[in-house]
Amino acid sequence: MLRRMLVLFVLVGLVACGTNDKAATNSENLTLKLNVQPNQTYRYKSTQVQTMTQTMFMTEQTQATTTTMTMEQSVVSVSPEGETVIRIVIDSLQVDMQTQDQALSYDSTDPTANTDSPEFAQFAGLTSQPMTLTLSPEAKVTKIDGIDQMLDKMLVGSEENEQTLMMRDMLTKTFEQSYAKATIIPFGGKPMAIGDSWQDVTDMNLQIFSMVLTNTYSLKERNAGLATFDLTGQFEIGEFNFPGLMERDDMKLAIEKGEGENSQRGTVVIDEATGMLKSNVLDQTMSMVIKIEGEDLGQSLTMPMSQTLHMEVQLQP
Fold this sequence. Notes:
Lipovitellin-phosvitin complex, beta-sheet shell regions, about 50% strand, 13 strands, 13-stranded antiparallel sheet, disordered N terminus
């Protein structure tokens, strides 16, 4: 289960970028809207260090994963009304995974990269497959193209069974509901002074469980054409919804908040002249407990799960 969740958490934690109108002086309020031109290109590098821990039958399993990727974002078009189309391509992806008993690595730039593992085969499908996002002037995603083609590439060779269909549905919802907002930060669209803030809510309704992320962005400072925001976020875990198991009358599943926090905190820096991301650094913690009860088990089964994530995204020269 740890490895199946890995692909989803990597996608949820993908690169973030932002928006703006015209550069304002420090004495003026700042209004963020997109201000880019066709054929402009921005390259980002993202590094994520993630640790996931799961306890089952009093045995603790830990998986540490470092993911490094480079991404190119190209402006395709800008309409007179300010609607912007951006093309996104993940150029390279490197994953190093360590568990108690083995170490696995994948590097998309290595022609001999191992894709025998289903998870690594899915990672291979992420690279060099373009997606396009259509954005409002306030950077709200109104349309995504290319998801189906990316999923076909990620799941190529997989047998069409219930598990594959579930994975396709989860990945589709992940891209639609969280990947887009993780790639483009939808700003509030109103003038802001130092100390002002706005919230953005993402309903990350995955097939296994539902989760709502509420992020609050607060304008901390403006200096040399850069706007710095404090980011705080809270995750609300919803109902467990695992196909097949949930339909059984003799088994009951539930997901609850764990002992730790379900939150994230970070710092986002935006170029005021273009609205594009300069850097994004955040730390995230998640804690949940899966409970299974059933006559066949003889007793209730409790599986605590926790995750810590440190992510850094930087605009490349």
